[in-house]
Amino acid sequence: MNGPNPKADLLRYLQDARDALLWKLEGLSEYDVRRPLTPTGTNLLGLVKHVAGVELGYFGDTFGRPYFDGEPPSWWYTRDAEPHADMWATPDETREEIVGLYRAAWRHAAGTVEALALDDVGQVPWWPEERREVTLHHVLARVISDTQRHAGHADIVRELIDGSVGLTPGTSSVPEGDRAEWERHRHRLERAAREAGDGRSRAGA
């Protein structure tokens, strides 16, 4: 029987998060994958662009394996980029280019994970000098956490666009219910929230 394989476990959870995030783009127009749905501008394609940069930086530059041979793109952390440049797509950046870069980041990350041991140490260039040293294990855990967080953002953004919910096409992770049932559920929560709010207001009066 094969023994534990921590690398494989970590990569599986990372890939689950990657797949969930990319699935949120499927079936949407160019406008819908780009439009901001929160006051801070959160959008689906921008999330993918951001996590592509996260992987290329942490699994590349941190361990002396930079992805870009020449000049990196204008939004890259080493450039004099405008704030939040990695969190949205310009009209000149296509969905195919950004998704393709993300998939290339997966392959680059796989090469780093294969080449190194989990306790091998790298240096995160954009962190304060006193805490730049990290192990590959640390980086894997951090990137999984970051990707899952942004996949959660994408869940909400996609639901705001067209009501689609779920983890993957074959695994919804959401209880079954038609639109009317969910609307009743939402109204119930709204009533409960108002009742609680009114009660606290009266108590504090």
Q: How do the strands of the widest beta sheet line up side by side?
A: 1-2
Kindly state the mean pLDDT as a whole number?
92
Strand content: under 5%
Briefly note the structural class of the backbone. mainly alpha
CA(first)-CA(last) distance: 67 Å
Major sheet details: 2 strands, antiparallel
- The counted number of beta strands is 2
Helix and strand pattern: HHHHEEHH
Proportion of residues in helical segments: 40-55%
Uncertain segments: none
Globally, the shape reads: globular
Rg of Cα set: 20 Å
Number of helices, counting only DSSP H or I runs of 4 residues or more: 6
Structural write-up:
This protein is mainly alpha-helical and 205 residues long. Helices cover 55% and strands 3% of the residues. The protein has helices at residues 6-23, 30-34, 44-58, 95-115, 136-162, 179-204; strands at 121-123, 133-135. The chain has a two-stranded antiparallel ribbon with strand order 1-2. Helix 1 (6-23) runs parallel beside helix 5 (136-162) and helix 3 (44-58) runs antiparallel to helix 5 (136-162). The longest helix has 27 residues, at 136-162. It is globular and about 60 Å long. The mean pLDDT is 92.
For the structure shown, list the relevant keywords.
205 residues; mainly alpha; two-stranded antiparallel sheet; 6 helices; 2 strands; 55% helix; globular
Please give a quick description of this structure:
The radius of gyration is 20 Å and the shape is globular.
List the helices and strands and how they pair.
Layout: H1 6-23, H2 30-34, H3 44-58, H4 95-115, E1 121-123, E2 133-135, H5 136-162, H6 179-204
